[in-house]
Amino acid sequence: MAFDSVDQYRTHLKNYAIQEGFEIHRLKNERTRVTIICANGGCPWRIHVSPAADGKTFIVKSYTDRHTCSGRKTKIAAANSRWAASKLAPHIKANPSMTIKSIHAMMRVQCGLKPSNQQLYRARMMAKEDIEGNHVKSFAQLLAYLELVDQYNPVTVIKIEFVERQDMNENPMFKRLFVCFKACIKGFLQGCKPFIGLWGNFLAATTSDGDNDLFPVAFGVVEVERKDSWMWFLVCLYIALQSEVDYVPHSTFMPDKQKVTKCIFLNLCNIEIYLWVAAKAYTLADLQKAMVEMKDISVDAHDWLMKNPPSRWSRHAFDQGAKIDHVTNNMTESFNQWIAPYRDKPIVNLIDQLKVQLMTRFQKRYASACTFKGTITPAVRKRLDSIERAAWGYTGYAAGLYEFEVNDKDHTVVVKLADRTCIV
Ligand SMILES: [Zn+2]
After folding, report:
1. CA of 79 relative to ligand 1 center, distance in Å
2. Do residues 123 and 143 both lie within one domain?
3. How confident is the model at residue 265, as a pLDDT?
4. Mean pLDDT for the chain overall
5. What is the Å distance from ligand 1's center to 69 Cα?
6. What is the whole-number distance in angstroms between the Cα of residue 10 and the centre of ligand 1?
7. Distance, CA 27 to ligand 1 centroid (Å)?
8. What is the reported pTM?
9. What is the 183 CA–ligand 1 centroid distance (Å)?
10. Helix locations, 176-251, DSSP H
11. Could you tell me if residue 148 is inside a domain?
12. Which residues are registered as beta bridge partners of 153?
């Protein structure tokens, strides 16, 4: 057996010992000769290598391939976190969300090892850093990267904030980052609904395009999600939008608070049903009916809900200017899933990969829009068709240019198209 260098030999022996489950001890460890024995005292296993005649290649000069020590070990000192990271790297590259449980199974099956959880957490972090770069280094590269973005995509609005320094000789420490790409600013202002869903944790503003599809507007990385970091994010968003237009359009904002409401009602199934009926009501009459039924079950739930103006939670009272009738913030949840593979990456990789994702998404939407026919987008057309089918059982009688009396067998409603109202 021959090795190209002494280092190659050392690595090979280390992997072999881990694979076979025994500790090694380097009896001689020099550039010109290396003798390794089994670390278990008295065990005869031993290997000795030294350079061949060419002076470069290392060859095995003597080898005793026999152990008298008992049983293989499942914890080997040489199989440390760094070693485990090198084994893990190809797997983590293929599956970045690999769980500690899966890594345990892999180590057990492939190497016969049972490392501690802590060791595997460290190894997984090292493997990710090997693949994606180090977080600290990435923050150091951030300013250079942002300068490049500014150079090649000048309308993009990027705001970065550092922790206030007592001593100006200290290195600046990152606090917050806001990014709103040029295409997102223009796309929102020119082709989306004046509605913005806000999503916390990794701060983000998203909206819905003309075909009711998710359209990310801006994102931010902050030290912690709280009122002042949100205020900073929203001011940055306003500045970004204002950089393109003199007057930022009146927009409706939906914060990520639906979970709170859901938790309050989680154990009260019937109340939750009426809550959603009330929230999804298209008319005041539907809302009032649901609220009466809710009151029969719980006066407290009814009173708590009525303290909040229906314009904030019931569809029939929403601001029509938003041109959207979502009662949940599921749109921002989709954004969460969309960014999930990238959120743990070092900051420069994160911004760059989100940029690539956005480019890919916008290009697909553009290509799809090029095939549209007419003035109504496909998703909206589908919805109109469905509403049209649902209206087959109704008859409308004109009572003026924009007013109709509409009835089925049991009900009559007054529809005023000019006011966009439907009164029972
Ligand atoms: Zn041995």
Report:
1. 17
2. no
3. 40
4. 84
5. 4
6. 18
7. 14
8. 0.64
9. 65
10. 182-191, 227-242
11. yes
12. none
- State the pLDDT at residue 281: 85
Q: Are 144 and 352 in contact (CB under 8 A)?
A: no
Any bridge partners for residue 176, and if so which? 161
270 domain-assigned:
no
List residues, by chain if needed, whose CB lies under 5 Å from ion ligand 1.
38, 40, 43, 45, 67, 69
In DSSP terms, 398 is beta-bridged to 404
- How does residue 270 score in pLDDT terms, banded at 50, 70 and 90? low
Q: What is the CATH number of the domain that holds 49?
A: 3.30.200
Last residue of a domain, one of 37, 64, 91: 64
Decide: 358 and 181 in contact? Cβ < 8 Å.
yes
- Residue at a domain's end among 64, 90, 110: 64
Helices (H), 266-346: 269-279, 284-297, 299-306, 330-339
Pick 267 or 379 by higher pLDDT: 379
Residue 35 lies inside a defined structural domain of this protein:
yes
Task: Quote the number of domains for the chain.
Answer: 3
Q: What is the pLDDT of residues 298-345, one digit of tens each?
A: 888 888 888 888 887 888 888 777 777 777 777 777 787 888 788 778
Please tell me whether residues 8 and 51 are part of one structural domain.
yes
